[in-house]
Amino acid sequence: MSAQAHDAGTTGLDRETIDAPLFAPDAFRLSDEQAALTAKVRAFGKRVVAPRAAFHDREATFPIENFRDMHGEGLLRLCISKDEGGLGADFQTYCLAAAELGRYCGATALSWNMHVCSTLWSGPLADELEMTPADRAAHRARRSVHYQRIVNDGAVYAQPFSEGGAAAAGAIAFGTEARPVAGGFIVNGKKIFASLSGAADYYGVLCTERAEGEAASRRNTLYLAVPANAEGVSVVGDWDPLGMRGTVSRTLLFKDVFVPEDAMLMPHGVYFQAASRWPHMFITLSPTYMGLAQAAYDFTVGYLRGELPGMPPVKRRMFPTKQIAVAEMRIMLEQTKALWFQAITEARANPSREQVLRAYAAQHTVMENANAIAVKAIRTCGGQAMLKSLPLERIYRDSRCGALMLPWTAEICVDRIGREALYEPGEKDD
Ligand SMILES: Cc1cc2nc3c(=O)[nH]c(=O)nc-3n(C[C@H](O)[C@H](O)[C@H](O)COP(=O)(O)OP(=O)(O)OC[C@H]3O[C@@H](n4cnc5c(N)ncnc54)[C@H](O)[C@@H]3O)c2cc1C
């Protein structure tokens, strides 16, 4: 049975109510273009993506039809510049749009993030980093090839960097290696938790460029678009997790995979520069969870008002305990939105230390509060609200995954804030 047919009637909340913007354009001073793009994604999320979400969650299948439809809507090329045929959205606009999508299907929004980052990192971010004129010219020519695949053919990119060791947290060099050979590289290694595995057309693999006899170094991190159908690429293992089931994040193996030089999504050394000079690049996993936080709150208000389609119109809002719970959820939601909006607004190259600390705090706050709001939503709405015929229990399970997302897990954010707030760079205790 198809996702559409199976889920008809189970997600009436998403289809029938009119949702207000997560960030009202006048209140948050969005440009007309931002207001239009976020409205477009919100409408798309509600009309197209939400009705399919429960099916893919239950079956742990990848919602590839969402990506085909996103291609039709122009959303796969959101952050590609207009002169390359894209919509030209900047970092903040992307984050706002992704948060809107997260309200309707966390797994689709999180997977969309992996795709969009391949264009955001190689595009607006790379443009703010240092390169020689020759490197910049070569980079522009190479990325243009990738962008045309997305613009013209709807190619979908994944972003596997996790390996199960300390590399994804940025502590050591990636174990997946690219050995330079004539005309390109030979890639060997393994990536775990690769969202879109088996569905993406290209895997944007972070690996260590290492010639024979050379020591592995994080400075030599290479960002390569490996075609999914290249010889030596395989997807292994199963995928049956607690939440974010539609991301289908299985394990990727690369065995002597040849990729040509034009597979480079960033020139030599530029990813290392990006990770240190453009740290907000890692906050892009949070918009999905910002959307989930809003969705848990919206569900609760609709449920207590007796307005959920498909549910008896029983009102539960008159009990003081429910009112207090909604007030507490609203306060948490407003705190989360305010901090997160500030952090995505000040994302740039070479942020100040204050801005970096705020970015960690925003990431931590979104990831922890999305789940805390969902927990409170279940407790407040009660037993009937956690049935699988309604989206809240999925929101609850999906939101639990946010704090685990490397490289800025909730624990790592706490670790860095504490250290970097108490020590100047290079400072040590005697
Ligand atoms: C739904 C989902 C989708 C994902 N999709 C992708 C994807 O598309 N691409 C991708 O690359 N990855 C993806 N990930 C992977 C994710 O970022 C983690 O790498 C993954 O959860 C594996 O974690 P682990 O248990 O091996 O983490 P470990 O590295 O073992 O870390 C476990 C915990 O220890 C703590 N920790 C680790 N290192 C440090 C440190 N240096 N300092 C302090 N604390 C530390 C962290 O809190 C971390 O949560 C996804 C994960 C999920 C849940």
Automatic annotation (TrEMBL):
Residue ranges annotated for the Acyl-CoA oxidase/dehydrogenase middle domain, each copy included: 174-257
One Pfam family, short name: Acyl-CoA_dh_M
EC number(s) per entry: 1.14.14.21
InterPro entries documented for this protein: Acyl-CoA_DH_C, Acyl-CoA_Oxase/DH_mid-dom, Acyl-CoA_Oxase/DH_mid-dom_sf, AcylCo_DH-like_C, AcylCoA_DH/ox_N, AcylCoA_DH/ox_N_sf, AcylCoA_DH/oxidase_NM_dom_sf
Keywords associated with the record: Flavoprotein, FMN, Monooxygenase, Nucleotide-binding, Oxidoreductase
Subcellular location: Cytoplasm
Domain Acyl-CoA dehydrogenase C-terminal: 284-401
Gene Ontology MF terms: acyl-CoA dehydrogenase activity; flavin adenine dinucleotide binding; monooxygenase activity
Main location: cytoplasm
Reaction(s) catalysed by this chain's protein: dibenzothiophene 5-oxide + FMNH2 + O2 = dibenzothiophene 5,5-dioxide + FMN + H2O + H(+); dibenzothiophene + 2 FMNH2 + 2 O2 = dibenzothiophene 5,5-dioxide + 2 FMN + 2 H2O + 2 H(+); dibenzothiophene + FMNH2 + O2 = dibenzothiophene 5-oxide + FMN + H2O + H(+)
GO cellular component terms, A-Z: cytoplasm
Acyl-CoA dehydrogenase/oxidase N-terminal domain residues: 31-116
Pathway: Sulfur metabolism; dibenzothiophene degradation
Similarity comment: family membership: Belongs to the DszC flavin monooxygenase family.
PANTHER family: ACYL-COA DEHYDROGENASE, ISOVALERYL-COA DEHYDROGENASE, MITOCHONDRIAL-RELATED
Name this polypeptide is given: Dibenzothiophene monooxygenase
